[in-house]
Amino acid sequence: VTTRPAVLKTRSNELVKALTVGSKEVIVKLYDNGEIDDDTISVYFDNKLVLSSKKLTATPLTITLNLEDDNANHELIMVAENLGRIPPNTSLMVVESGGQRFDVRITSTEQKNAMVRFRYQKPQ
User: What is the distance between the alpha carbons of residues 6 and 12, in angstroms, rounded to a whole number?
Assistant: First the structure.
């Protein structure tokens, strides 16, 4: 079990969306939402750092996730490293898994992280 990083303990982690996907491979693309204003984020997946202090732009930051366990919940948490020139830190997360696509609008601040929960469910 990975220890929860300090930034995930000291800020509240607000559940933005819970997604059930039918493929173990999930592709997450993160864009700056609205005006490109130098928002910087870090991303944790199941308490592991997967992106560190990356700037959001019109070009996506892409992460490929592997949901190993059937029916286990996996947490992707986006942490605002700054608020850009136009607070709060906003991003658009596009999630693709198998033939599914989800758009999730995310807002994070220096007090609140944004969490998206994933659950893999075998297609019937």
Answer: 11
Dihedral of the alpha carbons of 48, 90, 95, 27, in degrees to the nearest 10: -40
Q: What is the DSSP string of 81-121?
A: S---SSSSEEEEEEEEETTEEEEEEEEE-SSEEEEEEEEE-
Say which amino acid occupies 117.
R
Rounded CA gap, 116 and 93, in Å?
10
DSSP 50-78: EEEEEEP-SSPEEEEEE--STT-EEEEEE
Alpha carbon distance 90, 18 (integer Å):
18
pTM for the whole thing?
0.93
pLDDT surpasses 80 at 1:
no
